[in-house]
Amino acid sequence: MAFANSHDDKGRTYGIKRLTPTNYLMWVFNVQSILDEEDLWGIVDGSTVKPPTTDTDNLAAYLKKFKKCKRILISTMEEEVQKLIMRLNSPKEIWQRLEEVYRPKSRLRKIQTQREFATVAAKDGEDLQAYVNRVRDLASEVERAGCAAPTDELITLTMLAGLPTEYNYIASLTDTYPDAEFMSHKVENLIVGEFRRRQIQDTGYISQEAASQSGQVLVVKQNASTITKDRKPATNKVKREDRRKCFLCNEKGHIAAVCPLKLTTSGKPKVKTKNPPKKTVSVVTNDKMVILSCIKSQKKPRSSDVL
User: Which pLDDT score, from 0 to 100, does residue 290 have?
Assistant: First the structure.
């Protein structure tokens, strides 16, 4: 499906699907919202009247709107649709021609829209939010065909009648509602909410598109046993345990209470005897100073060790 980009004077772009013989209703919805925002809908419905030729300022503004409105309409159509309105000049004539072709107000059209609205039902695997939107669109189409607009109660009943059989209990539940609370938007929230709950239960999540359509927050199912508390991010600081030093084995990273040295039978850790510091002894021999290094045996120096 091709998209059309309509630019306004401020450089904003409106991306909508081009009009084809099969998407008229959605095209009308999108284009009318653009024309309303640009204050151009009056050119289409005739509420904006062309000023007299003597009023040059207002006439110039009107003609500018006229051309812009026509450009938006033509630029959002496929070529096969443009052939239908090539000989038409005004936006009002273009709009009426498209309405005659794609939404005629004939008896046959009235019968068709009434039948579609009365027999609408949710398709297998269809998102129930999309189903509810389809019911509302068909109700609007009945009115556009020239019939009386369906009441809110009739729209609500139609929503419930077309639900899958596993949602029949919702109809029983709404049967207890007072008349003042039996409204389409409340029943819609009930239907869509139950559909989303089942979707989470079956698949574990709601798609982002479905969540945005229903105005719900994206939910991810998690097992309670896998949920852990947020922890502070790791830092480059050395842990306190890594700075400690054991006085038994002189190794870093632990303390004596958890030293890997085997414990004695009394339960007390074996004490590792530290090597005694080397001592420097001065011996005077023949008026010479001899430096001896005494090791831990503490033996007296021998004559052969004298330098």
Answer: 44
- Please say whether the beta carbons of 99 and 84 come within 8 A: no
Phi and psi, residue 26, nearest 5°:
-70, -35
Task: Centre a 10 Å sphere on the Cβ of residue 253 and count the other Cβ atoms it contains.
Answer: 12
Report the C-alpha gap between 144 and 137 in whole angstroms: 10
Helices and strands in the chain: count of H runs, count of E runs: 12, 4
Q: What is the DSSP letter of 17?
A: E
**Nearest-angstrom CA–CA distance, 307 and 294:** 14
Is the separation of the CB atoms in 81 and 19 below 8 Å?
yes
What is the C-alpha separation between 142 and 109, in angstroms, rounded?
A: 9
Phi, psi of 70 (to 5 degrees): -65, -40
**pTM (2 d.p.):** 0.49
The whole-angstrom separation of Cα 281 and Cα 292 is: 6
The phi, psi pair for 37, rounded to 5°, reads -65, -35
The single residue listed with the structure tokens 């369906």 is 150
Stretch 290-302: mean pLDDT: 47
* HEC string for 240-251: HHHHCECCCCCC
Span 30-60, pLDDT tens digits: 999 999 999 999 999 999 999 998 999 999 9
pLDDT at 221 exceeding the cut of 50: no
Query: Rounded distance, CA 222 to CA 207, Å?
Result: 16
> Among 48, 79, 84, 85, which Cα is nearest to 66's?
48
Place of tokens 């080397």: 278
